[in-house]
Amino acid sequence: MTAVTQAPTGAREGTRLVHRVFVIRELGIAAALVLLVAVTTLVNPRFLTAQGIKDLLLGSTILAVLAVGQSIVVITRNVDLSVGSVLGLSAFATGSLFLANPGLPIPVALIAGVLLGAACGVVNGALIAAARVPALVVTLGTLYVFRGVDYTWATGRQINAADMPPGFLRMGSATLLGVPVLALFAVMVLVAAGYYLRTYRSGRELYAIGSSPPAARLAGIPVGKRVFAAFVVSGALAGLAGVLYAARFGTLDANAGNGFELNVVAAVVVGGVAIFGGSGSVYGAALGAVLLTTISSALPVLGVSQFWQRAAVGALILAAIGLDRALAVRMARSLRGRSGRG
Amino acid sequence: MTAVTQAPTGAREGTRLVHRVFVIRELGIAAALVLLVAVTTLVNPRFLTAQGIKDLLLGSTILAVLAVGQSIVVITRNVDLSVGSVLGLSAFATGSLFLANPGLPIPVALIAGVLLGAACGVVNGALIAAARVPALVVTLGTLYVFRGVDYTWATGRQINAADMPPGFLRMGSATLLGVPVLALFAVMVLVAAGYYLRTYRSGRELYAIGSSPPAARLAGIPVGKRVFAAFVVSGALAGLAGVLYAARFGTLDANAGNGFELNVVAAVVVGGVAIFGGSGSVYGAALGAVLLTTISSALPVLGVSQFWQRAAVGALILAAIGLDRALAVRMARSLRGRSGRG
Amino acid sequence: MSESPPILSLRDVSKSFGAVQALSGVRLDLYAGEAHGLVGENGAGKSTLVKILAGAHPADTGTLTVDGKELAFSGPADAQAAGIAVIYQEPTLFPDLSVAENIFMSHQPLRSMRRIDANAMRAATSELFARLGVGLDPDRPARGLSIADQQLVEIAKALAFDARVLIMDEPTAALSGVEVERLFSVVGSLRESGAAVLFISHRFDEIFTLCSRITVMRDGRWVSTDPAAELTVEELVRRMVGREVSSLYPKTAAAVGESRLEVRGLTRHGVFEDVSFAVRGGEIVALAGLVGAGRSEVARAVFGVDRPDAGEVIVDGSTLPPGDTAAAIAAGLALVPEDRRQQGLVMELSVERNATLTRRWSLSRLGLLFGGAERAAARMWSERLQVKTARLTDPVSTLSGGNQQKVVLAKWLSTEPGVLIVDEPTRGIDVGTKAEVHRLLSELAGQGVAVLMISSELPEVLGMADRVLVMHEGRLVADIPRTQADEESVMLAATGQGGGA
Amino acid sequence: ASQEEVAQPTSGASAGTGTIKEGLKIAFLPKQVNNPYFDASDNKGGKIAVEEFKGVYSQTGPSEASPSAQVSYINTLSQQGTDVIVVSANDKDAICGALQEARTAGAKVVTYDSDTNPSCRDLFINQASAEGIAASQIKLISEAIGEEGGEIAILSATANATNQNTWIEMMKTELAKPEYAKLKLVDTVYGDDDDQKSFQETQGLLAKHPDLKGIISPTTVGVAAAARYLSASEYKGKVQLTGLGTPNQMRAYVKDGTVKAFALWNPSDLGYLAAYAGGALASGLITGKEGETFKAGKLGDYTVGKDGTVLLGDPFVFTKDNIDDFDF
Ligand SMILES: Nc1ncnc2c1ncn2[C@@H]1O[C@H](COP(=O)(O)OP(=O)(O)OP(=O)(O)O)[C@@H](O)[C@H]1O
Ligand SMILES: Nc1ncnc2c1ncn2[C@@H]1O[C@H](COP(=O)(O)OP(=O)(O)OP(=O)(O)O)[C@@H](O)[C@H]1O
Ligand SMILES: [Mg+2]
Ligand SMILES: [Mg+2]
Is the ipTM of this complex over 0.90? Predict the structure, then answer.
């Protein structure tokens, strides 16, 4: 109560800190990224040539697209473990589509992949709504189901670069003003998702749902509908990532994207999206994805044994946890100080 | 209140149903298992020879041991994603130990593996207690870290059967009265864990914690200590599973147990342990593990395309979710009927 | 007023939760420009009525008419669309979002292309806060707000709606006098602009200041609706209670013995300060105060759930280590928490397991529980408390609310405590069980147990306590013996306007 | 009971004439069924051979290459009274017990592509000797780089892969020869048979070694990933690549000039030979002893070598000129 009549400057300072804390989270990853790139470039200047930058961006694209979708789901206090399988399915579907219709225009393949992914998202969303069971369990089930469908469809076939139109493969490595086309997709997705989450009512409602589901329900937010939509978006982005995967790697079998789910969750966590919803941004998640990929690319250049790579990813996650914890403690202290009765 | 003075028979029926529902969950898996084995045996009678049974049991052992550990953690409303990595580490350690001390007695190797696993569990438990961050995130981090340590240690080496004492390898396939020795380990672990959870105060408290952490804290239960202990047990069992893995497969590299974490969670879910804690039993989880392994063995015998195997696992998870949901609805209805005024 | 048709009207509305009939055949009319008071005892069904008006609960039967049109709300969004804004009794904020966003969630001001206009939203929030005299920064997150600030944000949230019907469920419970005055002037201007206001409060002075008509509810039923001018406080209380109060409170005098619980200078910064009191064996001491005064927090700190910043707790002469619940239990303390479903019981465990969850020492050897001993102890206590259950192995979630309450009591009584702290012991249980619980408390005191009872129900406090301690804004402000305790003296102390200490 | 089943056809055979009996049940058990390589070896090689000598062909196996997965398949095949099990072992030891039991039950066991312990099988059909592979890889990269030579690196599969490690050792021996004095092996990295990892490791190699002239990737996933990376980078044509790959995977990159030549045994021939070897075993024509010979249809005569091993031959080299003759 006292705070109301208290020095308003103190209040302002407190909240400014809170703001700073939120920005600090993303800045922290960005700083880690810059540091990593700088050190690696010092050791080996070739790391940051035009080709090097292109490789970094291309390498992060697929994980970043998945991370954007995943963070939308995680913000609502859910999780989508099926993204790796959806990516695999969509990648194989893209290849099959080109195999069956060699002259297919690229946008059609893109749309088909996105639609297939969205359909998988619809399955996830519908099951979660119908079974009222944690998304973790449902998407664990569909992880296996989608992958099984992929296996059954592929029956051991492999689709190769020669089966796909050269124009499509060229998209996988082409650049526009030095920026890879695939990365442009990721940037478009990121900016669109980030803008939507910030400036549209339904976007803000996703945060509200993750922050407190009962309060969201009382506020008249259609919780079920929004969560459903989040899963459809996540599926659609995984579908898009599948098409990008096909364009980038050219060789496709039923194993594409196997095990990606945990990498994506790791990227989201490193990017500062709270796993229990309500806070974090897609920008952070995308930065997390870039950081994780860059680590994998930088370690070989730095001459660090590749065996350490996994450990580095793990250390990064634990460091992110530590940072989050420290920031939370600091923020709680500043907020407590200001609203105290004393 | 009215129901109390109302027809007591109705009340009795309602609660009897509730009881039935709890048992039904495990019976459901057992029935599915029996049905699967029966149908497969009808198709091919050799599925159920002494050798067939032995193979089934041996195949399920490692997953069952992991599932027991995992369900103890899940019951407390946590999850341990690092078990696959701990298994890998412990398996490689066992091999290295025999490599360095060819004459090492088998029990020493067992104890070493369990201790190593428990040490990993201590790391998990301590991080969770210190960071107060969801276990999902922490164990995702240690999943990478432990695997990274494993890689770095192995540096591409492989340990082969010839490096291990024949007695140890014989343990991997020996039988005692027709039951494989490894399966006996699993049964011992299962019975001990089941008995402990049912009849020890601290075991009971694990359920209380998962069911309602604030209630548990008010009841004077040392929540932090118990959760810590659950992670240590899960780690120790993953360590034991690693030793069993070494005995069974004989060939060890740093990839042992890669990707097991999701299979284990799947087994636990199929076994009816609620992912948000508080209910389920280790028996159910172990049955879930046996069912998942049996499906994989039965499909080829049934002549079902092997590509369907993953889809079958997914379908099993979704069926388990459906069963849980149906039971929950039925139970809620019976309770409502029982306590309604009408 | 009654010439024009009501904006909103309810007829024959009933609602039950399992065994509890929260509402039956309730009616209510709200007219444009009126402030309508709604009073009733705890558990009379006021909040349930609010939730039905808000679309948060569907009514079992009955009709809801807005502007002459019969409506069926399928969710809160429908009620909002019909122009109904609600301040719930418990704050419903989003901790991660900013205060401004909390206020405007789902109806943020928009600019082109349906985008949120953040600047307009911030400005509107500042303006609302200025009207209410609140000094909060619109950009700070809701996490960490005090109960009073949360309540103010809730009020701002409802005002932001420009609603035609504004429903306020105990909005003033945590507010100070200045803030209440501001709120009333805002409500006054709303009324002048033609809105209807439904106002729920336990403070009669507020009801009479603000409201032109008053509806009384009792045990989920509509009792009366009359112009405020035709009513007196005594008449209201008579209608609310409607029964012989004395039979509800079978307090028997007990021999008061040694001091068993002593609290000295207990402090948790920002929550309560320097709380000192003592409870003697055989004595029932009530801890009264307004919602949010800090009573539950004191109980939790005494019990070691929360670690106090300063002060000590002495049980039977020995000082407890701070923040150690197990030690408190071992020393003979027992706490029946106010939120039983969340904190008191493990809903999935059976009655017997719940009942013996805290009985750690005598039933176990080396941590091993002997099924027989456990079952016997559970049966003994269930019988003494007359828990109605088919079997002791049933999960607690299958019991009615009152029986759950008894299981919580059994759970703590089975530890044979020397000091029993009960927080809102009769919240949400029906009249018959209420009397049973009271009888039991009195019986325990008779056996020499020191009982500390936290209660927001004034009749319960007055009927049961040997001594009434009153808290106001985190401080102990009065210690009133039974003979001098009456409604007025306790309320004055609780609202910080008088009292001794 | 199972022994009787197998014993019977033996009596009808005429061992002296050297023909394989008809009606033999021959089952292929690859490491993993959803793998184009095994599709080629089994369904496009083994199957043709089995049909040539009028046996009954089948293929079964796990969808995931995990050590324990093959055991139940072996048991099933043995229970079904299969005469010959042709298996590519996911684990040297894990399936040994099951194979021994199958042999006790009367089945002949032929391993191909990836061997078990010699004691657990009758014959191993070796696709190519380690020496042969190493020699061809070094020869190909040397030819691709040309006279002046330079730095080369190896992109392997996993660090634990036994066959990869053997080949790498042999390549080092090969490089010590005077004709390769100008080639210098500067690095060995592991792509884990994963597209993305292989991409990153290739990137890393090129960044770390500015003067790198050539990459050898003796793994099908690795060579395709490296080719895809090079084909779309500024290094295309400047850094040479060779390795072990399948024609379908590599077709695009051979045609666009990223890769001049790469090698692989013909997997169809491997399956074909394994089927004939199994047929000969089950017909009692050979027993698996060193020095025995048998005729493998269109491939001609083969001799059993040391440790019951039959060598398919030298790796086949694919170039722009012949790649369109193959489809696997
Ligand atoms: N969700 C629920 N489930 C079960 N019972 C409920 C639920 N909500 C309310 N009740 C019961 O309905 C009855 C009426 O409760 P309600 O909250 O409407 O009372 P109230 O008049 O608002 O009391 P107070 O003055 O304490 O706020 C109580 O007996 C309560 O226990
Ligand atoms: N979760 C919380 N976050 C911040 N402050 C809190 C929280 N819970 C309680 N408080 C503070 O503690 C004070 C006392 O709350 P408490 O629940 O103890 O009151 P009470 O007197 O028991 O009220 P009630 O009648 O509701 O039980 C409140 O004013 C509030 O400022
Ligand atoms: Mg209320
Ligand atoms: Mg309270």
Answer: no
